[in-house]
Amino acid sequence: MQQISNRNFLIIVAVLVGIIGGLAAAALKGLTHSIAAFLQDDVQWQYKYYLYFFFPLIGILLSVLYVRRFIRKGKFEHGMTPIIYAISRKSSRIEPHNVYSQIITSALTVGFGGSAGLEAPIAYSGAAIGANAGRFFGLNYREVTMLLACGAAAGIAGAFNSPVAGMIFAIEILLPEFSIPAFIPLLMATATASVISRLLYAEPLFHLVTDDWEFQALFFYLLLAVIIGGFSIYFAKISTWAKSAFARIKNPYQKVAAGGISLGILIFLFPALYGEGYLTIQQILDGRMDSLLANSVFADYRHIEILVVLYAIITVFAKSLASLITLNSGGNGGIFGPSLVMGGLLGFAFAYGINLTGLIDLNVANFVVAGMAAALSGIMHAPLTGIFLIAEITGGYVLMVPLMLVTAISYLINRATVKYSIYTKVLAEKGDLLTHEDKDRTVLSMMKLRYVLERNFTVLQPDERPADRRHDIIHTKRNIFPVVDGTGKLLGIIYSERLFEILLGENPEKESKTMSELAEKPVDIVRMDANMESVMQKMNREDIWILPVVDSAGNYQGFVSKSAVFNKYRALLMRQGAYLE
C-alpha cells in the first residue's frame, strides 16, 4: 500500500465510495418504490382518495419518530445545505449515521406519499460515505472534501443513472472552484455508482421518444425560460416563508400534524403530488395529456382541454407548497425532484396551451423536457446540471441547444433577483458560506475568535503598585497589561512604557499610585461572541493593533491581535488553496 501514490490511492477510494454510493442509491429507490407499491397495489382504487389523506401524515410521523428514537446524540438535518455547511465550516465532517438514516427517513417520507424527491437524501448519504471513508483512511481536508463530493455525486449518478450529471452536480454545487485533477475521482465514483445502480435497479427514470427541435419553436423556448425563471424566484420566496412559518411551531408532533393534514388535503385534490411525481411526467411524455385529471376528483372533466391546462398550472403551485410542507414538517427529502416535476408541468401547460390557440403546433414532450432543465437551473443555480441531467435521463440529446438556452436564461433571471441558490441562501446570511467572490470576508467568516485569542498576558490587580510587580513587569514579553479585579472584571489596561517610567524613577509622583489609578480605558473591547469581520473593522477604524476580549458579563478573557489574526488568515488561505488543487 505504501508503494501506491497518494493520487492513485484517492482514485481507489473514490471507486470504493462509488460502489457503496451506487448500492445506497439502489437500496433507497428499491425501498421507496416497494413501500409505495405495497400501499397502492393492495388497496381498492375507490378507497384510495381517502387513504391518500392519511398516508403522507403517517410517513412523516414515522420519520420523526425514527429520528427522535434512534438519533439522540447526533443532529439530523436534510437537504443539500448541511453538506455545503460541512465543507465550509466543519472541515467536511458528516456524522456517520447519515449513511443509513437519510435512506430510512426519506424512504418512509416519499414512499408514504410525501411530496419530495429522493436525490438530496441519497446525495447526503453518499456525502457521508465519502467523508467518513476519508476520515477512516486518515486523509487530509482536501482529500476528504473530494471524497465527500465523490459520494454525493455517486448518489446522484445512482439515483438517475446519469454519471455525467452527477459529476457536474458535485462541481457546480459542492466544488464551485475546481481544477482538472478533481475530475478523475469524480468520474470514477459516478461511473461506478451508475453501473452498480443499473445492475441492481435498471428501470430508467423517463422514456422519451422525440424528434429534433424546430427553429420556428425557438421563440417559445425562450418565452418558457422567462416564465420558469420568474417561477423560480417565486419558489425561493415561498421557501423562505414556509421555513419561517413551520419554525414558529415548536412541538415536533404539532408540525407533523399540521404538515400531514395539509399535505393530505393537497394530495386528495391533486393526486399528482403523491410521492416524487415522476409518474405523471412520464404519462405526459407518453402523450396522455389528460393523465393529470384522470385519477382526481375532477376526472369527469378531463376531456375539457383548457381545464387540463389550468389544472396543470394549479398543480405546479400546489406542488411547490406540498414539497415545502413535506420538508419543513419533519419529512426527509429534497427539492431536486419537485423542481423537475414543477418545471415539466409548466413546460406541458405552456406548450399544450399554445397548441390550443392554433398559432403553432409545438412538440409538447420537448417543452416538458426543457421545462425540467430550466426549473432545475433557476431554483438550484446549476445550469450545467440541468442540461446534462435532463439530456441523460430522457435521452433528449437532440434538444441540447434548447436546453442550453432555457437553462441559461432561467438561471440569469433568478440570479438577477436572488443572489444565492435555495441551498446557499441561509448559509450566506449567516456568513457560513465558503465563496471565492469575496475571499477576505469568506476567510474571516471561517475564523473563530477563540482560536486566535491570546491569554499569556501578565494580569495586574487593582490594589497593587508598580513596585509590587517589578519582576513580572520587567520580564514579561508583552507590552500591555490588563487590570482585573477579584471577580474577573476588566477594569482597564496599562502599557509597559508607562510602568517602566515609574519603575525607573522617571515619573516619581506616580510611584504610590495603584494599578486601578494608573489604568486607562481601552479604545474598544471585543466580546467573545463577536465575529472576526467586526473585530477587524474595529481595529481598522481605531488604527489599533490589539484589543482586550471579555465575555458577556465583562470578565477578562485575553487579547486579540492583528498578528494572530493574520497568521490564522494565512493558514486558512493555505487550506483553501489545498481545497482547490
From TrEMBL:
CDD domains: CBS_pair_SF, Voltage_gated_ClC. Signal peptide: none annotated. It is a multi-pass membrane protein. It holds the Pfam family CBS. Keywords: CBS domain, Chloride, Chloride channel, Ion channel, Ion transport, Membrane, Transmembrane, Transmembrane helix, Transport. InterPro entries: CBS_dom (IPR000644), CBS_dom_sf (IPR046342), Cl-channel_core (IPR014743), ClC (IPR001807), ClC-type_chloride_channel (IPR050368). The chain crosses the membrane at residues 49-67, 144-171, 183-201, 213-236, 256-274, 306-327, 333-352, 364-390, 396-413. The keyword Signal does not apply. Residues 453-509, 515-580 form the CBS domain. The keyword Hydrolase does not apply. It comes from the Bacteria. It is found in: Membrane. This is Chloride channel protein. It comes from Parapedobacter defluvii.
